Amino acid sequence: MHSATDLTLQNDKGSRHTKMFKIVIVIAVVAAAAWLAAAYYQSRIEVENLKNDLAGTPKREADELIQKIGMHMVLPNETPTIATVKDVTKLVDQPFFKHAKNGDKVLMYTRIKKAILYNPSSGKVVEVAYLNVKTDDSLRLPAKDR
User: Fold this and answer.
1) Which of these, 123, 125, 129, lies nearest to 94 by C-alpha position?
2) Whole-prediction pTM
3) Which regions of 17-139 does DSSP assign to beta strands (E)?
């Protein structure tokens, strides 16, 4: 039979294992929390970097487009309004867009009343025309080049 001393030793061993198990659990929880906090912090940094990159993208794309077209012709010292041809079938009745393709870029210079149609895939200026400006200063699509 087991004596009272043997049972006390076994209880002490069980008690030590329980304490050790609790300590391991606490360490694991703290480590997991630290890892999650670090991962969250890193993801926040990456999101901020992406936001900053995306915020500059339209400006950067416009600058690159202006630079490419500027290699083919002298451009006015004005910031153009830039549009992309999305559905050329809606523009078939307009002479300016006769040779346009989906994805072409239109640069509209309102001060000098000029529009430029540019095909980025071929790197060519497709058309240049004067803009018609109504008396209420709203723009219409380019007229035939004069």
Assistant:
1) 129
2) 0.56
3) 81-84, 105-109, 114-119, 124-130
Token output for 26: 């606490």
Give the single-character DSSP code of 72: T
Is 88 in contact with 105 (CB distance < 8 Å)?
no
Q: Which residue type does 75 have?
A: L
In the numeric block, the tokens 């004596």 are attached to 3
Token pair belonging to 70: 């500027």
Answer whether 105's CB lies under 8 Å from 82's CB. yes
Per-run averaged pLDDT (10 residues), the chain, 146 residues: 52 72 92 90 81 67 90 90 92 91 93 93 93 62 51
Amino acid at position 79, single letter: T
- Dist. CA 70–CA 144, nearest whole Å: 22
Burial grade of 68 (CB within 10 A; 0-12, 13-18, 19 or more): middle
Q: Which residue type sits at 119?
A: N
